[in-house]
Amino acid sequence: MSPVIAMLIGIAVLLVMVIKTKIQAFPALILSAIIIGLLAGLTPADTITAVTQGFGNTMTGIGIVIGLGCVMGLFMERSGAAKRIALTILKVVGVKKADIVLGLTGFLVSIPVFCDSGFVILSSLAKEFSRLTKKSMLLMGGVLGMGLYITHFLVPPTPGPLAVAGSFGVDVGVFILAGLALSIPMFCFVVWYFRFVSKKCPPIIPEERAAEDLAKLSAEQKAVLARLEAKQASGKELSSEDFGELLKDESLPGAGISFCTLLVPVVLILVRSIAVSIMGVTGPAAAFLDLVGQPVPAIFISVLMSIYILASKQTKEEALSIIEASLGSAGLIVFVTAAGGSLGNVIKVTEAGNIMANAIATSPLPVIMVPLLVGVLLRFPQGSGTVAMVTGAAILAPMLPTLGINPVIAGLALCTTAMCPSYLNDSYFWVVTRFSGFPVNISLKYWTTCSIAMAVFGGILLAIANMFV
Fold this sequence. Notes:
The protein is mainly alpha-helical.
């Protein structure tokens, strides 16, 4: 059978298994890879060899990074560092721009923390802002949710973009810089979008705190809350300091260590990439940067900071339970991502990617449309952005040399449209909907529409960039 037809059959089987059956993405990816290899004419032994080699090569590249990233993310969550970052940004930006405060917090937090967890962590802060400022949760929750969403898809070391960078042979630091460069205008677009639509929709304000929520507040917090409500009732505007007072009784880490734990690995990776890969630094300086600026040691430094500084007040048993819980969630991500590597290696061995690339290269279709279409076509039916990115990278990697498209642009294009659409089959859709208090029809009308509009906007930016790169 033609390798291309075999690949299409294998991808169709993969989507049916993920959408319609009880089979999870990991075994579905492995089975799909085996089907493609056998249908394309590989012997059973060669097929299994291609599957296991692809799995092992991918695990070598990103397995440790994903595990360490999950450990760091859970410590950021449990220690309250994410809330501290939000309060620090609040002091700088001001409460009048509370939506931007939440969005920027999510934008930063989602670089190492999964967007689902990040939204759960920060949704209480969004409700607090909405309740006291009387600004709709459509604005607060929408901007927060999309701030988390953008960097989750575009900036390593989250697994999706990390897997894409690895598959396409792109330096991780370069991909971080490019992802941030694309993320900033997309974030500005999101702020404009939700400010616009929140004026068209009746405001969604969270209900007043239930008795059990009030019982969790300290006596000092209750006194501050009563004073803020009285201030608001008198017609006075609340200030950033008011919100700081409300939360100051919580045991939160300092702003410096919160930001450092989050940004140290990103900065180390970037410094190494700029110095070694771009500026051509050599000698002992390059050796040192290679030691601390590769993803594994850079994130490991942040993990040590999390354990011994962020979690300094926790017992050994509490710290170990956080590490074990985070590694439990990391296991699923690692296996799905590595299984995507198996699929990619089979496609490479069967030459299916090269055959498709040659056909596309001789067609009138602009090459930038290939990764853009692959992202959305893989995301739409099965709902998982990570699966779409991992699978899309496996399909596209063998095509890149023939297509002649810059691998950074191709990677960002795939990641951008893998965001689209976020609707009923997306777990993050339900996290945002439930924790923001949105009716489902409101989420479909505004959140889903934003995920589509944002991908289109990002795709246009990348198409323009592709004309010059």
